[in-house]
């Protein structure tokens, strides 16, 4: 067990990490909602960890902490003179009676980073009884998020697993824990409307997902020129035009369907030949990225 306490200008928090013999980590953290010193926070953290270990029915425990005072007082090498710490020391000794074998060891802060991070996080965030936070699950990101890819097969389109997860909540057969995590992370960027899957872009515009067959068909139409252009509804915008921008509201209406609405108005600052438009708000602050002309409509005050 590793424990640590944190007291700073934002508040106080304590963090504990229990590590099982097979290498599983069980983080525990708490926000301290009363005035305390650093030493009190360290005792609170150690006691929290011992209580968690007791709940796990642990009988043999090795405790590591970077608080020399807490460790050496518990080992009996230092006397407990501070009146605020005496009841903590007595209660901690009482908790140790629940273990068949328990060992306390001082460890430098560098080897106590996980517990320290949990304590610091708990001290800084605002937590109420209504928004209690479950233990964190931290994984290693081995590459940029945009490199996550799903391979297409002849039997189904590349987005089939995402679409099925949004529709049914079911994962593909034989998907392991890592596959499920990746799929959940990808799915939050997509939206299913009937049988059509869309991806949410940075400006809330929905991009329709297509498979390889549809992609080839569209490419042929683009290269064909006239047949494609004949079906495109052109929207003409000029610098200075007032427009409304389409946004997606994730709250359903009374019929249980999702609907589009618009926000704005915005001012057209620049128009590009391929349909991209740069907007600014009414105060002249320009948006960092352009939007597609299909996502806006003219506004008439």
From TrEMBL:
UniProt name for this protein: RNase H type-1 domain-containing protein
Single Gene Ontology MF annotation: RNA-DNA hybrid ribonuclease activity
Lineage summary: Eukaryota, Viridiplantae, Streptophyta, Embryophyta, Tracheophyta
Organism: Punica granatum
Annotated ranges, domain RNase H type-1: 1-127
Listed PROSITE patterns: RNASE_H_1 (PS50879)
